[in-house]
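2024-03-11 09:14:02 INFO receiving multi-entity request
2024-03-11 09:14:02 INFO entity count = two
2024-03-11 09:14:03 INFO echoing inputs for audit
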Amino acid sequence: MSFPDAASVALRDSQLRRNLAKATGTIRAKRASVVGELPDWQELRSAGRALKDRSLVDLDAQLELLEERVSAAGGQVHWANEADEACSIVAGVARAHGVDEVVKVKSIATDEIKLNEALAAAGVQAVETDLAELIIQLGDDVQSHILVPAIHKNRAEIRDLFARSLDLPDLSDEPEALAEAARVHLRRKFLSARMGVSGANFAVAETGTVCVFESEGNGRMCTTLPEVLVTVMGVEKLVRSWQDMEVFLQLLPRSSTGERMNPYTSFWTGVRPGDGPQEFHLVLLDNGRTGVLADQVGRQALRCIRCSACLNVCPVYSRVGGHAYESVYPGPIGAILTPQLHGMSEGRSLPYASSLCGACYEVCPVEIDIPRVLVHLRGRVVDTEPAWKPEKAAMRAMYRAFASRRSFERAQRAARLGSRPLARRGRIPRLPWPLSGWTETRDLPEPPAETFRDWWRRERGEGRARDEKPVDGEIGGKRGPRDLGAAATPDAAAAPRATSQNGDARRAMLGRIRQALADRPAPVEVPREYRRRSERSRPEIVDLFAERAGEYRATVRRAAPQELRQALTELCRHRGARRLTVPADLPPQWRPDGVELVPDTGLLPNDLDTLDGALTGCALAIAETGTIVLDGGFAQGRRALTLVPDYHLCVVSEDSIADLVPEAVERLEAAVAEGRPLTFISGPSATSDIELNRVEGVHGPRTLHVVIAG
Amino acid sequence: MRVSLFVTCFNDTLFPQTGRAVVRLLERLGCEVDFPLEQTCCGQMHMNSGYAREATALVRRFARVFEGAEAVVCPSASCAGMLRHQLGTDADPPTPPVYELSELIVDRLGVEDVGAYFPHRVTFHPTCHSLRELGVGDRPLRLLEAVRGIELVQLPQADECCGFGGTFAVKNAEVSSAMVADKVRAVLDTGAEVVCAADNSCLMQIGGALSRQRTGVRTLHLAEVLAS
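2024-03-11 09:21:47 INFO inference complete, emitting structure
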């Protein structure tokens, strides 16, 4: 179906339009507020754009570096030319481990390649674990938003679906109850899962580190608990250095969910002995991306970090929703990605699905000039359209009219005469096809008897005009000068595709990348004019951390060194926690009274699930975002400890609190270089997938207590 | 100051009163206005429809027609935006400086009170290209605020697109109609008698729906309010 036809169906669904208007309006306001509080947002955007461009212009070398580093850290790297290849790699891993069920983190790349269907055909069931994706999967539905895939469903519709498919006839439609139903249903799956599948938000070439940003904790579950993990990532997800994350850790959450930081971000590097999956596969996916890279204007679409800010501000998307785009990539970014990825044969009407209002470009955190790319792609559509098309003929005629003063004035007279029979009292109420779409809902003014130039000549005469040399004839013949601005725009579909063994795929992909970059784009300078050093005093930083962590509904307490044990004891008593798991190196002065501490000696997920909580320290905290970061170092233990039990009690040493994200990223550099996994935690796990109501606690700990130790 | 008027093909044919208002206004502010009769179109329609070669040729034609102009004024934010972007990348022939009307008055002439009198309730639609392509900011509002007798009322969701978008209004007529329906509702909520904007293409869209619904609300280009 073309976009206008699909949009027409969507526009008639008044429930959908209400859900969409409410949802997009809510996220827009949240985004505007958290973006507005940063004084250096524009500087971060410029840096984000440059960082993505920097890796794109050097993509072949950077991918080879990533491959080397992931392999050195114990991971296995696969190259996939296209969807089928990627799917069979994942299915092959499942077969090798004899699993018939995998748990999955929300990933658009895997939706793009239809991985779930391919796995089902291979006898493996993929269980979607993101709440919205679960809603989609249970309802046999299609995603309509990048970030909130079930944005088109309201709570009553979700209740009915869960009541039916999870056999819970008495379920209420409160978001808390719906989230709890999903938690119970999925927890069994997580605790027994042997294989996890994820996408990646970013991959850092220099360190071989891959990451997933999420909210509910299902991403942590899938990337931490199973014995084997497969991550499928588009090749454009690459960034060069760990330091680059100081920018994207700010751009993505604020643009995406409209939060200072999303509840959980997990970074891992290959395999960490004794912590998390002991087998890791990274699938590097092309599937049309090298074709996008070859288009000098269109390649900026590969900067996209899938935040979905452009969807929420788009006046078209917010009225018709995602389904009208008929792609896993909806909205303005979808309108430029879908036709490029699929070689302009699909989605030919998508570049026209925009009024070019520019709202998308204004919010894009990596400055993708979406209107410019849309216009460019319209040109690619026009170039492949036959000359007899009525629009082409009309555009040629208009061009000829504009080519000289005489022909323009003739056309003005024709317009006036032609419209006269259609006009009623100065208005044109009905036009013939193809212009009838205008007059369905709008009148058109009748061209007045006197044009502006007629008036000018009457009032001022020809003589007042400046000395003019006639410029007619400088424009080429009937079809216009075809040499002007002509740029080669290779079609992705036309690019050669190898479908063969992995070594061949690797060679073919790298070859296509080099070919795509044959124009040798200049090396990119990264402007780093955003804030990198705090200007706040130490007490201000500590206060800010306490305030911001508290805003996520984490309970925050402060304690002087001699009060620490007392504070921990009180919090445990208040919580009713009697058995806590702790890392083996927990300092003795952190041991609360009256609580049984179970040191982690390789507890299984099911064992952890029977405990009341976990007590750990952390590597550092970030004041501006209210985040704590664990790196598996001193007093922190394995990732599973702070994930499976329902309660996390965390000690933050006052002097470990950084003010800004870049300061924290700098301090974490050594841990990343050593290959230690990182977990960024901002408040308890949460979801906003049901009508964008925030519900605390889905799969990760539902309660987070933080003690700031002075 | 000598100002060359690029009235745009659209205004020339459909909204000549806007061009006349620009001439009256600028002459009142002491400018000498000329109108090169060779001018036709900036190429925006071709550019936005995917006919870049034709558009580029029309931009070059524009540059030749206005070669040597001290300042070009254009009472259409989207045409001014188109020209500024396309001329910016093409230095042959030398590019004349193109101003949207409010930019010329506020920045080049240094005037905010143009001496207008307009005793009506007016709401202002800022238009996407004024806001996001040209970045004219609050210049038009500053000019309107100085108009005597005017009662300016804030338009809700003012920065949202009206749904015109050139051929978009026809190719995606239903979505475009849904967008203008919301804009019309916002206009009616203000109780204004007049909707004002710096681009007649948006006003044709909003005005077309206002007229079809027999609301009695008029549309007026910024130049016409300022020239009153």
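2024-03-11 09:21:48 INFO post-check: Chain B has two domains: 2-108, 121-226.
2024-03-11 09:21:48 INFO post-check: The CA atoms of residues 36 and 65 of chain B lie 7 Å apart.
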